[in-house]
Amino acid sequence: MPLFPLFFMIVLVAIKESLWLVGLICVVFAIKSWMFTPVRLFLTFLLVGTFLIFGRQTTDMTPIESVDLLDAKQNGDRIRYLAAVGERQLIVAATLDEREDLDYERIGWSCQVELTEATILPRVNRGGFDEARWMRTERLAGKFEVKKWGTCHETPGFEARGRRMRQAWMDRMERLPIKQALYIEALVLGEDRLMDQVTLDRFKKFGLLHAIVISGSHIAFLIFTTLWMLKKCRLTRERRAEFVLILLPIYGWLTEWSAPVTRAVCVAFILLLYQRLGRRTDPLLVVAYVAAAQLAYSYTSLYDVGFQLTVGLTIFLLLSRQIWQKMKRPWNWLLISIWAQVMTSLVLQLAEQTEVSPWSPFLNLLIGAWIEWIILPLSFLVGVLLFFPVTGTLMTLHHQSIDLLDDALAAAEQLPVPTVAVHLLSLPLFLVVLAVVVAGWSVAERKWWGHILPVCALLIGSLCMDLRTEERITFLDVGQGDSTVIEKAGETFVIDTGGAFTLSKRTPLRPFDPGSQIVAPFLHTRAETVIDGLILTHADNDHIGGVLGLLKKVRVDTIYFGRYDNQDEKRNAVLEQIKATGTKVEFVKAGQAIRPWLHVIAPAESEAEENDRSIVLLADVAGKSVLLTGDAGVEQEEGWRIGKVDILKAGHHGSKTSTGLELLQQVDPDTVIISAGRNNRYGHPHKEVLERIGENRTIWRTDQDGMITCSSAGCEAMIK
């Protein structure tokens, strides 16, 4: 098996990163796949040398006074630049000033700056984004905020000139209608800066993201199309190959040599070069050497989900040729798509992304083919011809093809069971499932039922995790807001959904929504796409701002509102939007029991202050009594008669207007949870509250500890 260079490089990376299990497994495969030849020995030494040169850690601590701006992404009035300072690359974020119209125009320029260092966070919620891992994978030296821009000038050099040319081309693209510009930039240049949240969510939901980024299949399609066109121009076979060999590096340069483009271009270039020289080589060997070279140059690529998926699936397809060749089309295509979905699900488990669509294999064939065969060539034609008069017919065809794609994705969302969630597997169970999938792959070469094993393994693994789920209450880190998840007696309840506050004067393409981007992904890691109840304590945005985003991804049986807080204008607006989704709504007040283990303590009557109309809950979870106080103030707390509790969630995010001394003396909690945002503008939690709680009680804070999970074994923070 010609995969020795890849396994060998993974072993080196595993040793460097202390990934001992991965290293041990790859040592076995490396030994089994070793084939000695002088050329391969030389290439192995070359890989080792590259790894030693580029694998070292940079410790340059030189103060940053100017940066070379390489790329950028704007969202609302915030822009994030990829910048270089010497050998270091870093993130530089800024707020766009209304008086300053420079944004993407700075790409390819060097600017003097005053910077302040920003905090880089690890994963703070299950299923959430791990910024620290992403920064390390991309080998970024830090994240900074711009205090002040200085003078800028064009960066000298060939690469910077290319960036400015690329930016000028994209400026022309962005004069087109936004959806057309989006697909042209994504498919031609691999740039997603115009991608809106709705489109992104649809492609992610159905496992189609690979179809709108530059991948090996895109490069292959472009090569075959170019060769066909050159053949029609009566060029000889040799001249056609030479033309494409010249074109490929130029295309790589225009796309900034992003990691997937580099892999695809290098593999295609080597295979074409061999063909031009009249020699044959094993495509699997080429893929292995290119992937190994990428690891040698940037060893952190091993952590990149895109690297894992593209390399893994390419190798899988090449090794499985005998299976697919025995079957008739289109059934072999469908089977390949199903296997790709299973493999993708396994890789995404490592990134804590567990939402999958049972329709993905079919949609990959239909929608993937539409993008590959229709939208991709039209996007290239329109993109290239932007410098010339473009016929209205071509523009109309491109526009109509995109409209059909959007209609198809919208229709797919209405399919029965559009998505399912697979439980986040524990490491031992993940390894067992992986072993069964590999066994199924081996069996499938001889027996038809081998194709069923991978799907069964994933489903059974998810079921096993579900059966092992213990009672627990989880306080999610939604920033300056509240969201709590209770899992008990086979039911799941969510209390509040968080909300986002923004001062942006420009509408962001990808607005932050904690309901869809924090709460829903967390529920998916628990294999939940349907929950029993959602309790909205009151109408403040930091408690209900994510409700509609959550309802787009998770079905809720019943939503509960406070009986005395349903006449407010904000509440009525939210109610109308919820009712439009067909979700059942109930109103509750003090003295009611939503469940035998979940009692409503307040409100007992209408209050003038909105915070004082908050639903207050007393829950019995995992043998612990938990008091959830919403944003109710000290005066309301004095009227409650509760008794001792084990866990108290501090009121109003730790504001001094809540969690009074009388309440603390009455309930005498062992543990206090404070849900607040990092560096929030209110100064929560207030010093007075922390002093009232005292040092003899355990305090957990989402702004410092991330997500906090409490079970019978105690409480555990996400950030350790």
Question: What report would you give on this structure?
Answer:
The longest helix is centred in the middle third of the chain and has 25 residues, at 360-384. The mean pLDDT is 90. The relative contact order is 0.07. Helix 1 packs parallel to helix 11. This protein has 720 residues and is an alpha/beta fold. It has an 8-stranded mixed sheet with strand order 13-12-11-10-9-8-21-22, covered by helices on one side. Among the domains are: 4-54, no CATH class; 66-156, Beta Barrel (OB fold (Dihydrolipoamide Acetyltransferase, E2P)); 469-717, 4-Layer Sandwich (Metallo-beta-lactamase, Chain A). The protein is built from 26 helices and 22 strands.
SSE topology sketch:
Blueprint: H1 4-17, H2 20-33, H3 38-54, E1 66-75, E2 78-85, E3 88-95, E4 109-117, H4 131-137, E5 143-154, H5 158-173, H6 178-189, H7 197-205, H8 216-232, H9 237-254, H10 259-276, H11 283-297, H12 305-319, H13 321-325, H14 331-350, E6 355-356, H15 360-384, H16 392-412, E7 420-421, H17 427-444, H18 453-468, E8 472-475, E9 484-488, E10 491-495, H19 514-525, E11 530-535, H20 541-544, H21 547-553, E12 555-562, H22 569-580, E13 584-588, E14 593-595, E15 598-602, E16 616-621, E17 624-628, H23 634-637, E18 647-649, H24 661-667, E19 671-674, H25 687-693, E20 698-701, H26 702-705, E21 708-711, E22 714-717
Parallel strand pairs: 3-5, 10-11, 11-12, 12-13, 17-18, 18-19, 19-20
Antiparallel strand pairs: 1-2, 1-4, 2-3, 4-5, 6-7, 8-9, 8-21, 9-10, 14-15, 15-16, 16-17, 21-22
Helix pairs in contact: 1-2, 1-11, 3-11, 6-15, 8-9, 8-10, 8-15, 9-10, 10-11, 11-12, 12-14, 14-15, 15-16, 17-18, 19-21
